[in-house]
Amino acid sequence: MSFPQMNYQPAHQPVPPYGYNAQPPEDPEGLGSWILTLFVAGLPLIGFIYLLVLAFGSDSSKAKQNFARASLILGLVAFVIMFVVFIVIGATVGFAAFSVVNMSDY
Question: Among residues 68, 34, 38, 66, which one has the least CA distance to residue 52?
Answer without folding.
Answer: 68
